[in-house]
Amino acid sequence: MRQRVVSGMRPSGRLHIGHYHGVLENWVKMQDSYDCFFFVADWHSLTTEYADTSGIAESTREMVLDWVAFGLDPSNCVVFRQSLVPHHSELNLILSMITPVSWLERNPTYKEMLDNIEQRDLSTFGFLGYPVLMAADIILYKATRVPVGHDQLPHLEITREIARRFNHLYESVFPEPEALLTETPKLLGLDGRKMSKSYGNSIYLSDSAEETSKKVLSMMTDPARVRRTDPGDPDVCVAFNLHRIYVPQEKLDEIIPACRNASIGCVDCKRILVSCMNEKLAPCRAKRQELAVNPAFVDDLLREGSQRASLISDAVMNEVRAALKF
Length: 326
Ligand code: TRP
Ligand code: SF4
Hints:
It contains 14 helices and five strands.
């Protein structure tokens, strides 16, 4: 039996290359060796976006176009939307009954967001319960592996505790899912800060070749390399982080000494990067454009995927209700 993987992303719109190398690329690889369920966590978006939900539908569409264009194969994994499988909500309710508030209050992500986010009022029941909904998402499919980044580890620990508590109180229905840590260093954005939509420093998967070129040419390099004649250091160069991903090793072996002895200028060096990036991204970008032509593509895909997911979740909920003697 293959291990079952469940993972979700909140609908955040078009994905940038940091999302790709941090998460999506890993999902794509897992499709062949695990029984995979990947979903749009639109109910999770409500925990922070409840006052303005207008962007969620469009963000869902853009994100799923990226998922499929850049390698998720809906015939090889189940791609669905959380809110189309109401069992997530039913299980969330049941799990909320057995989850001590203290587990949620000591969650470091909760405390941090409550302290740092001032534009929104996050003192809601739903926001406190974020990890309970996430636990429901995962154990509803009896997942055994959950690919997550470091930031989500506390949530996964709560999931394991909730599953354990359910099994202990009623019947042993749920496996305790293990984290599959995605060990990818944070990708830096154009300005040298972490690549993030909110900083406006991102290169998107769906950017055109021209946009990519413009962005890369504006990207920070080695801040100490002021004049063309100054020697540079690829190890502190912001752009060079992308070279390492996109430029073939033989080429890097030429660029590194050329940068250190100032025989190559940053503009030429970044042009090499641009052409490698655009070459690598072109086929998926073309596929994305084809998929986007059909306005029903994403809706149809998510509807079908959600029906497939429901087959599993329905059976698990029957076990849950039986365990509760309902
Ligand atoms: N909390 C995750 C995030 O913010 C998204 C998410 C929701 C998730 N439910 C999940 C991830 C279940 C893995 C499994 O990125
Ligand atoms: Fe960075 Fe290339 Fe400029 Fe060196 S030559 S500082 S590696 S952009």
